[in-house]
Design a protein that fits this description.
globular, mainly alpha
Length: 344
């Protein structure tokens, strides 16, 4: 028998192929993440496109024109909603952005304790205790601020690139999937692969519906909380919190920083708001979110919590966001491997 034999060569080639693919995925992980979020963005906009397509008098069989109509609708609707719920908010946001560095600096240096203590009548020892506590954690506060600054530019770039890439998935996503199926599937199992693709597509729609539900919960909670605590533009604050709910971890941190900054600068009850935000995150992360995701994706709430924690440990913010749909995909594949197409 010649060495190496054919089986050994096949094993080595497969092993090398896996290594090459793993290396490519690792090197291009940033690009793959952008494309993954573009697909999620396409699923988020797809119900609007389908609604427009069903009620359109022209081009019902074409997706492209209705995708353009959906984007045009968002471009008109978003500024209009901002103007209605928070008139003049653009100028106020600009002024707020200029004041945020000074506000963060007052937190890291502990001077905010003196400002708050003078306003609420704290004694000198109380002010000094709070100030010393903030000074002890100054390095951590500055580290968080630097991390937010570093992620700001990539985040803004993603806000531009992801919706653009989503246009292609909205327009030709079904054709691209069908082409991939024709390339990789055999004649005897092509219908099973198409059925699997439909199941995965349905699962992604359920995941996006769960994320929208969580965003609505945050919108309602923060709108009511801001109204009760006499924050300006309570509905706009609720919309901000709801929209940023789509961004894991960093989203609620950004919204919390913005809301507390607004409260401190407008002399609202921002300390009570900070307590409510902490309580809300506990409820959202360990009770509401696992149950909503578990109901939509048919996974146990405890598994949803475990998946998010493992995803965060492995991939940070991106891992937190993609871990649950990844496990849902594995669940679909697992069920089909045991039950077949008729088992779903």
């Amino acid at each position: 028998m010649a060495f190496p034999d054919r089986r050994t060569v096949n094993v080595l080639c497969t092993f090398l192929l896996v290594l090459v693919v793993t290396w490519i995925v690792y090197v291009a992980r940033g690009v793959l993440v952008v494309f993954a979020f573009s697909i999620l963005c396409a699923y988020l906009i797809d119900p609007v496109v389908r609604f427009i397509q069903r009620h359109s008098f022209m081009f019902r069989n074409l997706r492209g024109p209705h995708v353009a109509e959906a984007y045009l609708l968002f471009l008109i609707l978003i500024p209009l909603v901002i103007h209605l719920v928070a008139p003049g908010s653009l100028g106020k946001t600009t002024r707020l952005a200029r004041q945020i560095p000074a506000f963060v600096d007052s937190i890291s240096t502990g001077e905010i304790a003196t400002q708050i203590g003078g306003k609420y009548g704290w004694s000198e020892p109380q002010q000094q205790r709070v100030k010393s506590l903030l000074l002890q954690h100054r390095a951590g506060i500055e580290s968080v601020v630097r991390g937010l600054e570093r992620s700001a530019i990539p985040g803004l770039a993603g806000l531009v690139v992801i919706p653009i890439l989503a246009i292609f998935f909205l327009s030709d996503g079904a054709k691209m999937v069908d082409s991939l199926i024709r390339i990789w599937a055999r004649e005897d199992n092509i219908e099973d692969v198409r059925s699997l693709a439909r199941d995965l597509n349905s699962m992604m729609h359920h995941y996006i519906r769960a994320k929208v539900t969580l965003a609505v919960f945050s919108l309602v909670f923060f709108s009511i909380a801001a109204l009760l605590l006499r924050f300006p533009h309570s509905l706009a604050i609720g919309l901000l919190a709801g929209l940023l709910e789509f961004i894991p971890v960093a989203g609620w941190m950004i919204s919390a920083l913005a809301i507390l900054s607004i409260g401190a600068m407008t002399h609202a009850h921002w300390i009570w708001m900070a307590a409510l935000i902490g309580l809300w995150r506990m409820l959202m992360d360990y009770w509401i979110s696992p149950r909503v995701l578990g109901h939509e994706l048919e996974i146990h709430p405890l598994l949803a919590i475990f998946t998010v924690m493992v995803g965060g440990a492995v991939g940070g913010i991106v891992g937190i966001y993609l871990s649950v749909p990844f496990v849902a995909v594995i669940r679909v594949l697992w069920r089909r491997s045991w039950t077949g197409p008729s088992g779903l």
